[in-house]
Structures are given as structure tokens and as C-alpha cells.
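Fold this sequence, please.
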Amino acid sequence: MSDEVKDAGLVAMISSILGGNKRADHVAPPPLAEVPPIVPADPVEPVETSRSDAAAAKAESAPDAAPAATKPAEPIATTRDGKRLLPAEAIADLVLGELRKLENFPNSGVSVTVYGYRHWNAMLTFAPFSTSFQNATRFRQAVPDLVFKLRRFVELEI
């Protein structure tokens, strides 16, 4: 991160602490895609086995070997409206995944908190020096539109 970006972040933090109450100029949030989000369903992916692994698998499948514990696939919980019921952590991952598609979104130092019940909402927090003040403002302005679109497909599980 360049020194100019760090300086701008420090100036913004100091002015907010000292009561500057100056907000960044209104920046239009980037447009969001109209495509429904992809919700991970934890599919079981086949793993390629080498010859030694195949021999070990045959040895384990012998009649005297104990059966391997397999995780049964859980049915996907949905509401009467057809929305998926997901815990707050899964919704936060969806929001973060959609935000990562935006230009200049930081790879680390971002936290998404999902709160509420019927009309759940999301809040973004940034670690110091993870992004500039202007970019953080732009990303925060994009969150309400993103949450509005995700609410059509996802309901918070309590």
C-alpha cells in the first residue's frame, strides 16, 4: 500500500476522532450483478487417488474392516417463499463473496457482520490500512443494495 493511501487513512481516522465530522464526497456505489448468489451446498467432491491410495482403499474395503463413516447430505432448509435459510456466518460469506467482485476490494482486513431477524442487515468493518477511506466509503454504500438483493433469495436462520 502506498504512503499516500496510508496518509489519507490516517488523516481520515484522526479527523473522525477529533470531531471533524467531515464525510467523504458522495461516491456512487458500483453496480451490482442481477444474478442470484451462489450458495455453497458443501458437495462431496471426488478425490483422485494414486495407486498406493487405491491399494489402501481396497484393504479398507475388506469384509473385516470397519465401515467408513460418511456424512449424510443434509437437506437444504427453505422457507414457504422458497428462500434458503442460512446462518449468519454463511450470509456474511455470501456478502463478502459478492463484495470481492468489486474493483479494488481488499483481500484481507474486512469483516462482515450480519444482524437482525426478519429484515436482516450487514455491516462492514475494515482493519486499519486495509483500504483507503474513499474506497471504504464506496464499499459501504454498496452494501445496502447488495443486502436488498440477497434478501430476495436468503433468509436468516435463527
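The chain has a mean pLDDT of 75. DSSP finds four helices and four strands in the chain.
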